[in-house]
Design a protein that fits this description.
Blueprint lengths: L4 H11 L5 H14 L7 H7 L5 H14 L7 H7 L5 H14 L7 H7 L5 H14 L2 H16 L5 H14 L20
């Protein structure tokens, strides 16, 4: 877009309230593209999580995820979005709460409840968020879900590496047994 990011983000935030759903969708996507530079639109993005259009809600959650720690003001709306009927909105909200980090401590009970979500991706992103947001007990509660995602055999090596690092961050009691890892990912020192 060029120019002043705050001016653009403010205008796009206002467009999230437009009557035309296409305008709202495009505004949410543009805010996603701005990433952390969309921080002035956080209140509008939080409101957009309750939009009647699922695509607007998905884009709003994704945009807040990219805003990161500056999305702290949207934590209450993100907690509400963890109960959205659409799984993509739910995992987007969990991901956003994880990037907010310690500023999202109020979300720990809702994230813990999301560990039982019917959708594996929601459980995965809720567990990931708990590692960054929660206390020791929350992290330990996240470990079985992280192991479950790891054991599903996802071929994406970056995802597998991230899961192993998250389990390592929780502590040795949460780490998967070496036999559960692909033989190619473990080496023995002789």
């Amino acid at each position: 877009m060029g120019g002043d990011d705050d001016v653009a983000a403010t205008a796009l935030g206002k467009a999230l309230a437009d009557k035309d759903v296409t305008v709202r969708r495009e505004a949410a996507e543009a805010l996603w593209r701005l990433g952390s530079r969309a921080k002035v639109a956080v209140p509008a993005l939080g409101k957009a999580l309750a939009d009647g259009d699922v695509k607007v809600r998905r884009e709003a959650a994704a945009a807040l995820w990219r805003v990161g720690p500056a999305a702290k003001a949207a934590v209450p709306a993100l907690i509400g979005a963890l109960k959205d009927k659409d799984p993509e909105v739910r995992w987007g909200a969990a991901g956003a709460l994880g990037t907010v980090g310690a500023g999202a401590e109020a979300a720990v009970p809702a994230l813990a409840a999301a560990l039982k979500d019917e959708d594996l991706e929601v459980r995965h992103f809720a567990a990931r968020a708990l590692v960054w947001v929660g206390d020791r007990a929350a992290k330990e509660a996240a470990a079985p879900v992280l192991r479950e995602v790891l054991e599903k055999g996802n071929p994406d090596q970056r995802l597998r590496a991230e899961l192993i690092v998250l389990l390592w961050k929780i502590g040795p009691e949460a780490a998967p047994a070496p036999s559960r890892l692909d033989p190619g990912t473990c080496t023995r020192r002789r």
